[in-house]
Amino acid sequence: MIDLLATHYNYLMFVALVAIGLYGVTASPNLVKKVIGLNIFQVGIFLFFVTSGYVDGAVPPVVHGDVAGTYASPLPHVLILTAIVVGVSLTAVALALIVRIYDAYGTLDEEAIREVQTE
Amino acid sequence: MTEIDSLRPLAAVLLPAIGILTIVASHRRPNVREGFTILTALGTFGLVASLVPATLAGTTHVSRLGTFVPGIDLTLSADPLGMIFALLASALWLVTSFYSIGYMRGLDEHSQTRYFAAFAGSVGAALGVAFASNLVALYVFYELLTVATYPLVAHDESDTARKAGRKYLTYTFGGGVAVLAGTVLVFWTTGTVAFTPGGIADLASTDPVAARAAFALLAGGFGVKAALIPVHSWLPDAMVAPTPVSGLLHAVAVVKSGVFGIARVVLDVFGPETAGNLGVGLPLAAVAAVTIVVASIIALRQDNLKRRLAYSTISQLSYIVLGLGLLSPAALVGGLLHIPAHAFMKLTLFFCAGAIHVETHTDDISDMAGIGKRMPVTMAAFAVASVGMAGLPLVAGFVSKWYLLIGSLDAGNAVFAGVLLVSGLLNVGYFWPIVYQAFFQTPEDADSKPLVEFPIGGARVRTDGGERSESGERSEDVERDVSGSEPETAGSEEVPINTAEPVDPDVDPDVEPSESEGRIEVDARVEEDGEYAVDRHPSDHLGDEATDDGTDSHDADPDEGASLTGAGDDDHHGHHGGPPASGWERRGFGDESTWFMLGPITVAAAGAVALGLVPRGMVFLALVQRVVAEATGVVF
Amino acid sequence: MTPVSTSLAVILTFAVLAAIAAILLRDVLNAIIAFAAFSFGIAVAWILLAAPDVALTEAAVGAGITTVLFLVTIAKTVRPGGERLFERIAWRSVAIVAVLVGALLTTIRSLPAVGSSEAPVATSRITEYYLQNAYPETGVENVVTAVLAAYRGFDTLGEATVVIAAGLAVLLVLRQEAYV
Amino acid sequence: MTDAIALLVVVPIVLALVPIALGRLWDGAGWVAAALAALAHLGLSVTVAAKVISTGRFTYAVGGYTPPFGIELVADGISATLVVLVSVVTVAVVLYARRAGPDSNSFYSELLLLTAGISGVFVTGDVFNLYVFIEITGLATYALVATGRSPAAALASLKYLLVGTIGASLYLLGVGYLYIATGTLNMADLSTQLQAVGYDSPLVLTGFALLVVGLAVKSALYPLHTWQPGAYAESPDSVTAYISALVSTAAAYALFRLVYAVFTPAFDAAVPFALDALVVLASVSVVVGSVLAVLQSDLKRMLAYSSVAQFGLVIAGFAVANATAVTGGLVHLVGHAIMKAGLFVGVGALAGVAGGRTVDDLAGVADRAPVVSAAFAILAFALVGVPPAVGFAGKWHIVLGAVEGGRWGVAAVAVVSTLLTLAYFARVVERMYFQDAPAATADTVSGPDATATADTDAALTPDGGESGSESTDDAKTTGTSGITIEARIVVVAAAVGAVVLGLFASDLIAVFEPVLEVYFQ
Which of B542, C151, D97, D509 has the fewest Cβ atoms surrounding its Cβ within 10 A? Predict the structure, then answer.
C-alpha cells in the first residue's frame, strides 16, 4: 500500500483534484465557484495526461540533433496545451454568462436565482 | 398462377392519393372538389375492376416498387384475396362518394375539404392494404389507414369526437404495435414475410412457441381493427363520425382491413394447415364466437341507431373471423364471402341511419316509430338489409352464413353452428323492432321494446355482462366521460326526482337533451352503486315508452350513453330529433330525401340482394373460391 | 520502481490543499486567490514533470488570464457577504463524487508507475517517432512545438477555432446587455 | 478531391471570419457568408459522398503526416451521409434564420464554427481530435443558446456549459486512459492496440466507461439529460432546430464510432456487460424521456424530452451490437435529425400564428396555417413511426436487430415507444386540427379585430357552400401572414424529406452496409 502510494502518488492526486473539482461544480451555491470547480476538475485530468508522459530522469523533449538520453513523451504535452486553451476559453464564456445572469437576477446564488425564476 | 408486372395495382393505390391533391387544390370550389372525388372514385373503381378478369383467369398483376427495407420488397400484387377487398372498397367508395356529398351538404358540415381528402386517403390506404404482398407492406398501409381515418373520426371537433379520436388512435396504434412485433417475429423465424398461398413453409417447422406468439400478436393486433371483444370499444365511440364514415370505413374499409389482416395471417402467412397444427385456429374462433354473441346482446340494448349498428358490426365482423378460425374450407369460403356480404348490407343500414339523421335529425330508435311513412324507400332498404343481416335467404348474408354453418359442422365443432343460429335470432331481435315500429306503429302507439328494457327472461342476469368485464378495464375512461358531461353529484340529487316522476303515457317523446343527460348521470350513478335501474324501476313503471327507452338503453353503458348524447347535441345544430308533434308526415316515393342519398341507398341494398340471389354472378364468390383453393387445395 | 520525487509530492499536495480551499472558502475573492495559488502550484508541478511548455502556458493562462477573468467577473458582480468562512458540505454531491472516486481509485493499481520507462506511452512507437523525426522533418528542436504545429496541426486549428468561438461567444453574450 | 474532407472543416471556419472582418461595414455580411458557407459545405459534402459511393471508404492524412503520427480523417458511407446531413440542415437553418433571426453577424459566425465543429466530429479518425471538435461544437452551442433574449437563456446556457464540459472532460479522461494503456490516439491504431492490451484490462474498461458516460451526457441520455430541455426551450427557434438536429447527433455518432471502430464487436464479445449496461441506460431513457415529454405543456420542452427518448432508441440500437440493430440506430439518427429540425422550425412558425409555444396555444392553428400544420402533423406521425416515413425504417431495424440479438427488452421498448411517442404527439395534432382557437389568441395575432373574428368564425362556419369557402380563404390570407415563406419551405421540405427518406431507406442502408460489414464480419 505504501509502495503504491509512493509510486502512484500523482494518480492519487489526480483523483483528488477530479473529486474536488466535481464537488465544486455540483455543490457550490455560487456560480463563480462552480466555474472554479470546473477548472480544478480539468486540471486534474491534465495531471493525469502529463504524468503519463513522464519518465524518470527525463528532460523536456527538446532535441538537439541526436536523440540519446531520456525525454518526456511530447504528445501528452501537446494535448494538454490544446486542452488548457480550450479550458480557458470555456471559462471566459462561462464568466461572461455569469455577468449577464447577475445583471438579470442580481445574485449569483443558485438557490436565489431558482427562487426568482419560479416567482 | 402467373404473375405479370403491371402498374395497375400501384395506380389503384396512387389514384386516391392524387385525388387528395386535386381535392385540396380545389377547396374553394366545392362543386369542382366533389367532381374530383367522384372522378377519383370512378377511376379507382375502374382500375380495380379492370384487374378482375385477369385475377379470375389466374393471372396476378404485380407492381414492384423496389426494396423497402433489405429483405422486404415493397410490392403491390392484385392476388385474389386482395382483389376481394380492393374491389369491395373501391366499388363502395364510389357509392359512398355520392352519398357523402348528399350527407355533408345536407348537414352543411364544416371542413368538408379535409373530410373528402381524408376519405380519399383512407380508401387509398385500404387499397394498399388489399394489394400489399407482404406483412411489412401491409403494416405500412395499415398504419397509414389509421392516420388517414383519424381526421374523420374527430371530424366533429367536439370533446366527444376528440375523445373518440384519441381512443381510436390509441387502440389502433396499440394494435399496430402488436402487428409490428408479430411481423418482426415472423421475419426473425423465417427470414421472409411475403404472403404465400398456403402459408410460409418455414413457419410449419419453426419453434411452435415463437410461431404461436407471432400468431397471437398478429391476430390480436389486427383484431383491434376487426373490433374483437375485448378490444372493440373504439368502434362504438367512433360512431360520432359523420355517417358516411361510419358506413364505408367503420363497416367496410377500416374494420375490414383488420379482418383482412387476419385473413392474410391465416391464409397466406401461416396457412390453414400450419395454423391447424399449431392449434391457434380454435382460440381465434372462440374469441370470435364470444364476440358474435356478446356484441349482439349489447346491440339489443342500444337505443341509438348508429350505436346499435356498430355493435351489430362488431358481431358480424366476427362471423368472418370465426370462419377464418375454423380453418375448414367451407368455413373459409363463408368467412371470406361475408366480407362483401356484410359490407353491402351494413353500408345500406348506415346509409339509412344517415339519411334519417339528415332529414329528421333523429338518432334514437325509440324516436323512429312510424318513420316508414316519412322515409319509405329508406326504411324499405333498411328492412331488406336487416333481413340479410339475420341471415335469411335471398339476401347476401344467407349465402355466407350457409357456408359458415357447413364449415363449422365440417370442422367438427357443432357448437359454433349453434352460435351462428343464436346470433341469427339475436339479429332478428335487434333489427325487427326497428323495422316493425317504423312501418306498423305511430309515435303514439309505439309500445316498449321488451328486449331493450327487460333483461332477457326477466332475470337479473345483465345482458351486457361481457361488456362489464371489459368496461372495468377502462373504468377510468368511463369515469372521465361521465364526469366530463356533468358533475356526478348533480346526478345523485336528481335520483328522487326521477323515480318520483309521474307515469305519463302521453309524455312528449321529444326529450330535452339536458334532461336526458341528467338521467344518464342518474343511471351511471346507480350502476356504480351496484344496483341496476331495472331493479329500481319495476316493470309496470315502463309505461312511458320512448323517454324511458332512451334512458334505459343509455344505462346499458354509461360511457357510451354519455358520449352519444354529446354527439347528438353537436350534430343537431340546435334541432331536436324525433318525430314532430303532429307525427311523421307522409312523403311519397323519392320525395323523402335527395337522390344523392337515396341513390346510394338503393344501389347498396340492390347489391346486398344481388349477392344473395346470384352469388356467383357477383364475382366475389368466384374470387373467394379461388383464394380458398389456393390456400387449402380444396376446389368448390 | 522509483518513488515519486519528494518535491513533486510536496507541490502536488500543496495544489490539492489549495484546491480544497478554493472550493470550501465561502468568500469568492478568497476562493479565487486560493485558485491562483493552486494554478501556480500546478505550474511548478509541470516543470517537475519535464513539461516546461505546459508549465509556461499554465502560468500564463491558468494562473494569469483565468485569475484575471475571475477577478473581472467579481468586480462586475457582488461578492457574497460571508459570516461563515467555509461552505457547508453538500452530501448529495459527496455521493456523486464518491462514485467517480471509487471507480477511478480501482484503476490506480493498474496504472503504470509514475515515471516508469516501460509504460506504453514511453515505449510507444509514436513517442519514438516524434523524438526521432520531428527535428529532421520539421526543423524544430522543441518536439512539442513541432508536433503541435505540424503533426497535430489540425488540433491546433481546432484550438484556434475554440478561441475564436469563445471570443464571439463573449461578444454575443455581453453585447445584448450593452456591456461592450 | 480527397482534400474536400478537410475543407469541410476549414471552409466554414474561414468563412466564419468574414462577418467578423466585414461586420462593421456591412450588416448583411453574416447571412451572406453563412449562406455561401452552407452551399460550399453542401458541395464539399456531396463531393465526399460521391467519392465514397464510387470508390468506397477513403482516409486523408491531414498535412501529409502519416497516421498514426499525424491526424487522420475518415470518410465512409456513414460519415459521408452525416456530413451531407450537416450541409442540408445548415442550408435549411440559414434559410430559416434569414427572417426568424437572431439577426447578428456574430450569430452567423458562431453558427459556422458550430458547423465546422460538427463536421469535424463526423470525419475525424483520431480520438483526441474528436475531443477538440466536441469542444468546438459545445462552445459554439453554448454561445448560440445564449443568443436567446431572456436571462433564462443565459442560465440554460451556463448549465449546459457546466454539464457539457464535465461530459467532455470525462470523455477526455477516457481518452487519457486509452492513451496510457496503448500510447496511441488514432482510432484504427487504437483498435488493434486495444486488442493487444486485452479488453478486460481495468484501464481499457475504465476508458470505455468514461467515454460512454461523457458522450451520453452530450447526447442527453436520461439521467444525464438535465442540460437539454432548458437549452432547447430557451434558444431562439433557429438555434433549437440546428442543435436538436445535429449536436446530440454528433455525440451519438461519436459513440458509435468509438464502440465499433475503436472497441470493435470483439470487445462486446469479451466484456458483454459493458454494452448490456448501455442497453439498460438507453432503454430507460426511451421510457422516461417519453413520459416526461407527455408531462410537458411547453412544446419546445416536449420536443426536447422527445429527443431524450429518441436518442435512447438510437443508442439502444447501437448497444444491441448486431448489424441490423446498428443499421436501425443509424437510420433513426439521420431520420430523427430531419424530423426534429422540421418540428422545431414548425413550432417556431406556428408560434407566430398561435401566439404562444404551449400545447394549448396551438388549438385550431391548422385553420390558420394549413400548410405548416399539415407538414408538422406529417413529421409528428413520422417520428411516431408510421410507415413509410423514415421513423419506421429505423424502428423496424432496431426491433428486428433486438430480436435477432435476443434482447427482448429492447424490442419491447422500441415497439412500445411507438405508443409513447404517439402519446405526446397526438394531443398536439388533435389540438391543431380539432379544437377551435380561443378567441383571445386569435385577436392578439391576427391584427385588426374585424378579421380576427372572421378568422375564428371560419372554423365554425361550414365551408361547404361558396360563402363558407370564402371565409376559409380569409383565414388563410390573414392567419398565415405570421409565417415566413422560408419557414414554410423548411418545414415542408423536412416533411417531404422524412417520407422520401423512408421510401428510400433501403438505399440509405446500402450506403451504410459496407461500413458495418467490416465491423460485423
Answer: B542
